[in-house]
Write a structure and sequence with these properties.
The radius of gyration is 19 Å and the shape is globular. By secondary structure, the protein is α/β, with parallel strands linked by helices. It has a single domain, classed as Zn-dependent exopeptidases (Aminopeptidase, 3-Layer(aba) Sandwich). The N and C termini lie far apart (51 Å). Helix content is 32%, strand content 16%. It has a seven-stranded mixed β-sheet, sandwiched between helices. Strands 1-5 form a two-stranded parallel sheet. It has a two-stranded antiparallel ribbon with strand order 10-11. The longest helix has 30 residues, at 142-171. The chain has helices spanning 44-47, 54-58, 65-68, 70-74, 116-119, 142-171, 184-189, 210-222, 237-241, 273-292; strands spanning 6-7, 19-22, 31-35, 78-82, 139-140, 174-182, 198-201, 227-229, 249-257, 262-263, 268-269.
């Protein structure tokens, strides 16, 4: 139960660089790389009004995903990189995933759509940290949350939608690879014998043709990674929302075990980082060659 204390602040979004667009002017491939959880930036106004410190907030983040795919980005793949932390606003959620109990001035009679993520504190505006601690020492303003959605969330999705349309117009189809990392403990608890290195989320074979997802599966296995479909993640909002096979828009969620490439306690890269990054980028580049000849 959240305290009744009112925490009322507003953010100056002129000081917020929401996202980076890379290689989006002249699209070279029918593939878009999306990294919605790569951001680490928090507005000062937010920092001044939370009860947890910076290190606690950063545990919720997905570290170095942008650098893991840097080799592919350098090959010219159109890419969107979120700069704002997901603990401030999570662009890989539906905007209706609102927890009314977070706000002292919530007036909408509708609920948050029955979202489980909403109920456990991980809606579009996060209420808690990974360890269950509250981010705020009271209730925030619903209108401030709407500002976050307008100025950050909507900006990412506007850019992604336009980029998808542009890609389909040029190539006749589009494949969105939504790039993420997952905690090593999640990858370890799903199997008894060997941790999951790579998860390919395909909405249980609904988000793209099997030939596309099988290409990733086979390539990652050839590189020695324990790779599974839809375990532990089948695909979140971006994978689901932008999947439109009839319009030849395909999606897949790529999850990389953080234990492969970093120390999750110190937030430092390990000695395997460059190899992991090279392997992932190589698979993406190889996929681009395969998909150009693929009959949609």
């Amino acid at each position: 139960m959240m305290k009744d204390k009112k925490i009322d602040f507003r953010v100056n979004y002129k000081n917020v660089h929401v996202l980076d667009e890379i290689n989006t002017k002249d699209i070279r491939y029918p593939i878009i790389l999306s990294s919605p959880h790569s951001g680490h930036f928090f507005p000062k106004e937010f920092y001044d009004n939370v009860k947890v410190d910076e290190k606690d907030l950063k545990v919720n983040e997905e570290w170095f995903v942008d650098e893991l795919i840097e080799g592919a980005i350098n090959q010219g793949f159109a890419t969107l990189l979120m700069n704002v932390s997901r603990a401030f606003v999570d662009v890989n959620r539906d905007k209706i995933e609102i927890d009314p109990d977070m706000y002292f001035d919530y007036t909408n009679s509708d609920d948050c759509g029955g979202s489980r993520r909403c109920r456990v504190g991980y809606g579009v505006i996060h209420r808690i940290l990974h360890n269950g601690r509250d981010i705020y020492d009271g209730k925030i303003s619903y209108y401030e949350a709407l500002d976050r959605i307008k100025n950050v969330y909507d900006e990412y999705h506007k850019k992604l939608s336009k980029l998808i349309d542009k890609t389909v117009k040029k190539f006749g189809y589009c494949f969105v690879l939504d790039c993420h990392s997952m905690p090593s403990k999640i990858g370890a608890m799903m199997l008894d014998d060997k941790p999951i290195d790579i998860c390919l989320g395909t909405l249980f074979e609904q988000s793209c043709p099997n030939e596309m997802s099988d290409f990733f599966m086979n390539k990652f296995k050839e590189e020695g990674y324990n790779t599974l479909y839809n375990t532990p993640y089948s695909g979140a909002y971006i994978t689901f929302n932008y999947c439109q096979p009839r319009k030849k828009v395909f999606t897949m969620q790529l999850e990389i075990n953080r234990g492969l490439y970093m120390n999750e306690k110190t937030f430092k890269k390990n000695k395997q980082f460059q190899k992991i990054s090279s392997d992932i980028s190589k698979v993406i580049v190889d996929f681009s060659k395969f998909v150009l000849d693929f009959k949609i």
